[in-house]
Design brief:
Helix content: under 10%
Shape: elongated
Distance between the termini: 115 Å
CATH architecture of the largest domain: Sandwich
Strand content: 35-45%
CATH class of the largest domain: Mainly Beta
Structural class: mainly beta
CATH superfamily of the largest domain: Cadherins
Number of helices: 5
Number of strands: 16
Length: 286
């Protein structure tokens, strides 16, 4: 004969608890988009498992955001997910609720403040104060500074490059982590009073927004300008601008034109061959 120990837990035998700490620090910087989630706090309960109908399980808990600050209520929400694990205490199954902070709107890049959110979780079936767990999210919002990591960027393009050929990409520092706001890029001539002839050389290169909205993509805009002997290495200014606040940053880009494209007059090599009655005649230069 073998004896088996059977543990029967009534639904109000165990209070909800946190494993370790009931608070977490959240830093919001580059990801400022609506719907983004931050932090994670867990509440455990050995009286509940996911076998219970989801609606009934959720109705057993009364959850309340305790902050009265209007800005906090308009900006943040708390969401929870409901899972199950095997408890280290006696091996019984227990529920695990994962609470996360959620942005209800996009945050401006200039937003700079620290706030806290107290969130009360109460097990309505457990009598007494032990049925309540208090969670806290300590939130720090850092401003985003739009700037380039380097003062000058250098690119090389062949004089034989065709129109729309890619020259290179450029972006402000940390641009790949940006979410919830956009940065646009413009290409400018260092001296706007430049005369017409040199100004035509600057039409060789242009810039457009990358599909992900984070990069500026340099491309060949005028292949004839690339081939012109009068156009030498080019220096531009790239201006990056954040969409909402119009915050700006700028950097220089230097374009080196690779290869030589001599004109016919300069090289004296453009001889056009005509054949008439099997006689070859070389036409003189214009």
């Amino acid at each position: 004969k073998t004896s088996l120990d059977v543990f029967v837990d009534d639904e109000d035998d165990n209070a909800p608890y946190v494993n370790g700490t009931g608070s977490t620090d959240v830093i919001i910087s580059f990801n400022r988009t609506k719907g983004a989630t931050f932090g994670a706090l867990f509440v455990f309960d050995r009286d509940l498992t996911t076998i219970f109908p989801k609606d009934q399980s959720h109705n057993r808990y009364v959850e309340t955001l305790l902050n009265n600050d209007t800005w906090v209520k308009e900006t943040f929400d708390i969401k929870s997910t409901f899972n199950e694990r095997k408890s280290p205490y006696g091996g019984v199954r227990e529920s695990v609720r994962d609470y996360q902070l959620v942005l209800k709107k996009n945050l401006c890049v200039t937003e700079n403040r620290s706030v806290y959110l107290d969130y009360q979780v109460n097990d309505a079936t457990y009598p007494g104060l032990d049925g309540t767990v208090l969670l806290r999210f300590n939130v720090t919002i850092l401003p985003v500074i739009i700037h380039f990591a380097n003062i000058t960027h250098k690119f090389t393009v062949s004089r034989r490059a065709s129109v729309y050929a890619k020259v290179g990409s450029i972006c402000v520092e940390n641009c790949l982590q940006f979410d919830g706001f956009s940065v646009t890029y413009q290409l400018e001539v260092p001296d706007r009073n430049t005369s017409a002839d040199p100004l035509s050389c600057y039409s060789a290169i242009s810039i457009t927004q990358a599909p992900d909205g984070k990069w500026g993509m340099l491309y060949v805009n005028n292949s004839e300008a690339l081939r012109s002997p009068s156009c030498q290495d080019l220096l531009y200014i790239v201006v990056a601008q954040e969409g909402l606040t119009q915050q700006e940053a700028s950097t220089q880009i230097q374009i080196t034109l690779d290869g030589s494209m001599k004109s016919c007059r300069a090289s004296r090599c453009c001889l056009v061959q005509k054949t008439d009655n099997k006689k070859s005649v070389s036409l003189p230069e214009a």
